[in-house]
Amino acid sequence: MRNTAPLVYPSAVDRWLLVLLLAPIFMAIAFAAYLLNEGRADEAGTMTLMAAAIAAVTGVFTIPCRYTLLDDALSIRCGLICYQVAYADITEAIPSSTWISGPAMSLKRVIVRTAKRDHILSPEERERFIEELMDRVARSMDPSESETK
To answer: Membrane-spanning regions, if any (predicted)?
Structure first.
């Protein structure tokens, strides 16, 4: 397959999920403020540390959440989790609204199927992502395409 520029598609983010992820952090901060107001500085400090820990863990597993179309594979990254799916292994990519877990931050999703498993993604530009991904999959299968390095 010829060299093509990597295309990065950030994950779409649903507002309800953003609220769900941020609510524990803000609740811990609010509770810390309440404790501080009540003169319980030690407990307020503990709650502030708890808010920081929740924010760190949430960030480590969700930022960044993106999908990159490389020369020969789809790279999927959500926080520390990062892996690649070779175009040759992809059989189809279809729009979905599944609730199945995956590195996706929206219910406007894409199921990328391989023989071994389904990958659940949620790129911002879903239709364009599917079109570009399947174009690269088709080019990877075409024996007339050759490396131009």
So the answer is: 16-36, 48-69
2 contacts 148 by C-beta, under 8 angstroms: yes
What pLDDT is attached to residue 145?
A: 58
> Which DSSP helix (H) or strand (E) runs through 69?
strand 65-69
70-109: b or e for each residue (b if 16 or more CB lie within 10 Å)?
ebebbebbbeeeeeebebebbeebeebeeeeebbbbbeeb
pLDDT digits (tens, 9 = 90+) for 49-68: 999 999 999 999 999 999 99
Torsion 71-73-74-79 (CA) sign = negative
| Both structure tokens of 139 | 């080019």
Tokens of 108: 């406007």
Please report, as a single letter, which amino acid is at residue 46: T
107-139 tens-digit pLDDT: 999 999 999 999 999 999 999 999 999 999 999
CA distances from 11 to 43, 102, 104, 106, 116 (A): 37, 11, 6, 7, 23
Q: Where are the domains of the chain?
A: 14-61, 64-141
State both tokens at 62: 């969700």
